[in-house]
Input
Amino acid sequence: MADSQAPIPTNPSWERVLLARHAKRPHTLDYIQHLITDFEELHGDRTFADDHSIVAGMGWLDERPVMIIGQQKGRDTKQRLFRNFGMPKPEGYRKAMRVMELAAKFSRPVITLLDTAGAYHGVDAEERGQGEAIARNLREMSRLGIPVIVVVIGEGGSGGALALGVGNRIYMLENSVYSVISPESCATIIYRDSSRAPLAAQALKMTAPDLLGLGLIDGIVKEPGEGAHTDPDGAAESLRETLRVALRELCALTPRQLIDDRYEKFRRMGSFFQESAAAVQERR
Output
């Protein structure tokens, strides 16, 4: 007979997924309000519309002028509908790229905050070129001659997050997640059972410690208490210190160095093989 007092196994990966989705977790506008002074929001993609799921604008981080761009999910039902649940359409990505190009023109660093379950996959988004908009952002972000700092503050879902994720420095809040697919979708595909999402979350290696160990991010931003939702101001201050250090390092580089740094960073991703010194010598 099974021991009724046996401990229930824990799944740290799934626990972090739930924290990343917590209803009271700070979103982009919360961090902007705390970190950025004299913030002026910029609207529209100059092509079709203004996508409210992406917030973008200029302001000051301490004494430094910056451009900041992030995905905004919304809190209640009305806000979530207005923000399209934080899932951008093509015009959102084009707005973000317009703001980044403006930042490059005036030599302002760019900070992006990732918090989306993924890009919107509706018919209207596909008709207006969702895939092309994401691909263009990936290409153009790699060419920016200004510092680009990426922070995953909640969910970093698939290409919807990666379209704002090509940076010189990539950080994750302690309880955020970053993955090519949601655990539920992965479980449905692999196990034919969405209820096995916790198992998929563990296999996806989507938490900040997992990705730091794989060399895919540059650091983890410590969260206060039981998570950022328990002390939003403390979480923002922790992020402020990380941004200060990164900006100080990156702003000392030339545009060419910044582009090369970003290129080398992404070229190293996924390369887990090294030649031994003996093999190199033998080839010579």
